[in-house]
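[Discussion] Sanity-checking designs against the backbone

I'm trying to build intuition for which residues belong where. Below is a structure token string of 775 positions. I'd appreciate it if someone posts a full sequence so I can compare it with mine line by line.
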């Protein structure tokens, strides 16, 4: 096997391979290392160890080698040594220095045997372990490592892995590279390579770790070095941890590694498979997750419901119900029993996509052991599943069915309705305008001992406010407070907004002050609600006061807030305040949006300040904000009102040519009316043709403008043509249309044509109404 190489000059740094006492304590949390091969125990195995230790307690120069030899090497010729016996004796000696003397004794006195080298290696392993626990272990370890090299005693797998882990945890990765390359090739097996892989990954050396993986894959001839399940767990636990930086390897690279392991017979665990599928789906790669899932099945992976549920969630998030069904079928084939989480995922996403009937069908299949796609299911639905279904039913206006489902919950042991159950139902009835039913449920939950929460209060208060029952909302909230329930910013916002809508700002401010006194922290929305209410009512001094209070809290107004204030100042003709707001926005780094610019352009156009309107529009385009049809409409209307229809037409042409904003009926009506008033009827008629090209449908206002222009031109043929078009497009005339046509056509003797037009409009109008009713 090839290895990763570094400069030999790093050898001197091996002196830094110190492992402190702290390291030894941490090392105890690592998976246990393989022990020396077990040897058959003799009846006096422990007594030999005890007696040997007693003999070795005397000073080294006075050891009775004859007694030691008779005790440790009794056979002649020698039988197979027990490396474990000598390892245990050495490990119990008081110091590494005494252990080294014992090693020297073994070298000089052990009879020649094939097991002698193994005996010395395991003895040296014990010496390493003793040195780790001693003061100045740095120097001891360095000396011992050199001694093992000088004596040509190969390190055991245990000793080598111990040193590699130690160097890795001490962040001496370069030194551990040297150590790894120096190891005898015979020591390098899958276990040691896994230790080395873990060391590299913990040190962030992902590229080096992947090289080790590649080498293990290439070692097919050497069975002892092939990757195993532990290899996969080490790699994928590192790559797929939640806090792991996803930039280390892309999802596709991780997927390719999973498949490569699978091709070599190492299958990722169901747990890590679930993690990978979740990551893929989170990054909108559900199709890639599906492909991985099917490939792993082909490779024989044994997957559990966890991985299947992860994939099911990803597919459900994208609304891919066909593959969800296919996945359920595969679970049947693999004999994977769906659990309550599986069904919860299905039901939750079906309800989100408003497929409530399908969700109810799933509920029936999971109950009572019924067949579900060929698999016998017996999973009791839990409270979460019932609540999801009740919420789904209420969201599609089927509150009564939700009530029935709540009764079914009560009949199931251990599945009583909770606060969420009632909140879903109350919300459904309130949104349907059935406030009284919502209050009944509120009283029922109190009677049943189910505690309402702030969401319950907010739902009822909001429902009452939306239906104009503001006094009832206040009374309900007061009663709720008396019962010990508190409101939050949402509660007060609903009430404040309701009072602002009816211009009762005194009550709105009273509630605002009450909120502050109650200790409820107002959020930006509460302030925005008051600012909007005051601005709409033209009370800009009050709106400015609330803005100042908002800033005192350190909340920065957003674009919507500034737009509300700018609109209010424009309506109250306080343009100097508008400029103050714009300057403040710029200083705060809040960029104007389409609404900001449109408000300014509309105000300037209304006041006839066309130069300023054009200036704002140019700034809008320069700032990267795309003008809307309302922007162009305001400018075009301003020019038309000022009698400058030619300039208005130029802007209209620019709008069609240079922007992606298509003109609408309102803009055409403004231009057609203005052209006709300025005796440019032919241009107005041309614009009617232009409407056809752009697919814009004329309305009654369009025809009225063109009829006035044609009347002034006395162009009967064109009038008759547009009268026919009006009938064809089922565009009903109004009183202005009839006034124009009746006066003109009566004067020129075309009463019959007028009657035919009226009859045709009645028919087309009836047809249009029927068509509208059908749709």
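Best answer:
Here's mine. Compare freely.
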């Amino acid at each position: 096997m090839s290895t990763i190489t570094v400069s030999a000059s790093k050898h001197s740094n091996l002196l830094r391979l110190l492992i402190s006492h702290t390291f030894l304590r941490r090392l105890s949390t690592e998976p246990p290392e393989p022990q020396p091969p077990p040897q058959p125990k003799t009846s006096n195995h422990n007594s030999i160890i005890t007696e040997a230790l007693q003999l070795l307690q005397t000073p080294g120069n006075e050891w009775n080698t004859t007694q030691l030899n008779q005790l440790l090497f009794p056979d002649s010729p020698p039988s197979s040594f027990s490396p474990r016996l000598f390892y245990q004796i050495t490990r119990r000696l008081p110091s590494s220095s005494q252990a080294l003397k014992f090693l020297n004794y073994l070298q000089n006195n052990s009879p020649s045997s094939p097991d002698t080298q193994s005996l010395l290696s395991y003895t040296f392993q014990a010496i390493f372990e003793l040195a780790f626990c001693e003061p100045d272990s740095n120097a001891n370890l360095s000396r011992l490592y050199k001694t093992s090299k000088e004596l040509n005693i190969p390190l055991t797998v245990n000793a080598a892995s111990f040193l590699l882990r130690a160097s890795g945890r001490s962040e001496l990765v370069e030194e551990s590279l040297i150590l790894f390359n120096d190891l005898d090739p015979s020591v390098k097996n899958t276990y040691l390579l896994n230790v080395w892989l873990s060391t590299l990954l913990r040190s962030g050396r992902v590229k080096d770790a992947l090289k080790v993986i590649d080498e293990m894959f290439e070692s097919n001839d050497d069975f002892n070095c092939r990757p195993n399940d532990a290899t996969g767990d080490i790699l994928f636990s590192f790559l797929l941890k939640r806090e792991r930086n996803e930039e280390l390897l892309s999802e596709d690279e991780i997927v390719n590694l999973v498949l490569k392991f699978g091709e070599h017979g190492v299958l990722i665990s169901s747990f890590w498979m679930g993690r990978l599928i979740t990551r893929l789906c989170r990054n909108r790669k559900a199709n890639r997750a599906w492909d991985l899932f099917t490939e792993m099945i082909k490779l024989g992976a044994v997957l559990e419901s966890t991985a299947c549920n992860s994939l099911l969630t990803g597919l459900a998030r994208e609304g891919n119900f066909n593959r969800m069904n296919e996945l359920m079928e595969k679970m049947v084939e693999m004999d994977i029993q769906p659990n309550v989480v599986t069904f919860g995922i299905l039901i939750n996403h079906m309800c989100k996509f408003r497929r409530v009937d399908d969700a109810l069908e799933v509920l029936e299949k999971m109950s009572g052991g019924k067949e579900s796609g060929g698999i016998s299911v017996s999973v009791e639905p839990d409270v979460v599943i019932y609540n999801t279904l009740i919420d789904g039913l209420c969201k599609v206006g089927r509150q009564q069915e939700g009530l029935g489902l709540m009764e079914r919950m009560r009949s199931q042991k251990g599945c009583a309705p909770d606060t969420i159950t009632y909140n879903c139902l109350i919300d459904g009835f309130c949104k349907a305008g059935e406030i009284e039913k919502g209050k009944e449920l509120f009283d029922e939950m109190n009677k049943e001992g189910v505690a309402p929460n702030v969401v319950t209060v907010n739902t009822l208060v909001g429902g009452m406010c939306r239906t104009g029952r503001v006094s009832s909302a206040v009374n309900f909230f007061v009663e709720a407070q008396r019962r010990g329930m508190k409101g939050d910013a949402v509660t007060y916002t609903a009430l404040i907004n309701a009072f602002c809508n009816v211009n009762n700002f005194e009550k709105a401010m009273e509630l605002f002050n009450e909120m502050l006194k109650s200790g409820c922290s107002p959020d930006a929305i509460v302030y925005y609600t008051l600012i909007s209410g005051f601005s709409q009512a033209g009370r800009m001094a009050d709106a400015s006061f609330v803005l100042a209070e908002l800033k005192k809290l350190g909340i920065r107004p957003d674009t919507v807030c500034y737009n509300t204030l700018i609109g209010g100042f424009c309506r109250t003709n306080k343009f100097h305040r508008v400029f103050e707001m714009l300057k403040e926005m710029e200083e705060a780094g809040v960029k104007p949006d389409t609404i900001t610019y449109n408000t300014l352009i509309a105000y300037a156009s209304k006041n006839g300040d066309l130069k300023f309107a054009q200036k704002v529009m140019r700034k809008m385009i320069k700032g990267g904000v795309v003008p809307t049809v309302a922007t162009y409409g305001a400018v075009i209307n301003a020019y038309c009102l000022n009698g400058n229809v030619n300039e208005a037409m130029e802007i209209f042409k620019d709008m069609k040519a240079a922007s992606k904003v298509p003109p609408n009926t309102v803009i055409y009506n403004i231009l057609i009316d203005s052209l006709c008033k300025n005796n440019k009827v032919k241009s107005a008629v041309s614009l009617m043709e232009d409407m056809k090209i752009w697919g814009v449908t004329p309305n009654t206002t369009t025809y009225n403008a063109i009829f006035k222009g044609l009347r002034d031109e006395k162009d009967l043929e064109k009038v008759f043509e547009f009268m026919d078009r009006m009938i064809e497009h089922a565009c009903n005339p109004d009183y202005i249309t009839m006034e124009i046509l009746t006066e003109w056509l009566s004067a020129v003797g075309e009463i019959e044509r007028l009657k035919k037009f009226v009859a045709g409009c009645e028919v087309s109008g009836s047809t249009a109404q029927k068509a509208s009713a059908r749709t």
